[in-house]
Amino acid sequence: MLSSRIGHTEASKILLGMGANIDAQNIDGITALMLAVHNNHVEVVKLLLDNKANVNLNAGGGLTALRTAKVGTSLTKIFVRSKILALLRGAGARE
């Protein structure tokens, strides 16, 4: 999950290639996809979606990757978040 949080695409590729559980959740239910979305790492989001990360996993309280992308956007992040929202919706994320 650390590679997703910090946006290290190559490390994420290596971990996935070694069989890392793409949908693993931490103690709070947060997934690598949610961390990549929250930190605006578009390339990691694409990588995770291309490798079939579950876009609808719920961390509790309704927190999903899509909801993460829709919350807390500032004007400087709108362009990046709109790309991420399009990727998530294209992968079947539900409201």
Task: Characterise the protein shown here.
The chain starts with a helix and ends in a 5-residue tail after the last helix. Helix 3 runs antiparallel to helix 4 and helix 4 runs parallel beside helix 6. The longest helix is centred in the last third of the chain and has 13 residues. 52% of the residues lie in helices and 0% in strands. It has 95 residues and is an all-alpha fold. It contains six helices and no strands.
What characteristics describe this protein?
95 residues; mainly alpha; 52% helix
Order of SSEs: HHHHHH
| Count of helical stretches | 6
Helix content: 40-55%
Main sheet overview: none
Bulk shape? globular
Beta-strand content estimate = under 5%
How large, in whole angstroms, is the Cα Rg? 12 Å
Round the mean pLDDT to the nearest integer and report it. Answer: 89
Total beta strands: 0
Low-confidence stretches: none
- The span between the termini is 24 Å
Structural class: mainly alpha
